[in-house]
Design goal:
mainly beta; four-stranded antiparallel sheet; 1 helix; 57% strand; globular
């Protein structure tokens, strides 16, 4: 489990606060989105399973 990627846990440990959460269906796979805030900076974190293989695709966007 040491090789697991835990982007949300890492961001919360860095001081980011979770403001909102949503989950939508994208091609049969659930996409989870988190709105985060730290010191007036906002970020959207999207997590979805890979279409082929194991693991997740993680994208971050500053807004």
């Amino acid at each position: 489990m040491a090789n697991d990627i835990r982007p949300l846990s890492d961001l919360v440990a860095q001081g980011w606060e979770i403001l909102n959460y949503s989950a939508t269906d994208y091609g049969g796979a659930a996409v989870q989105r988190f709105l985060l805030r730290r010191q007036k900076v906002h970020r959207v974190l999207s997590v979805r399973p890979k279409l082929m293989g194991k693991g997740y695709v993680v994208t971050e966007m500053d807004i």
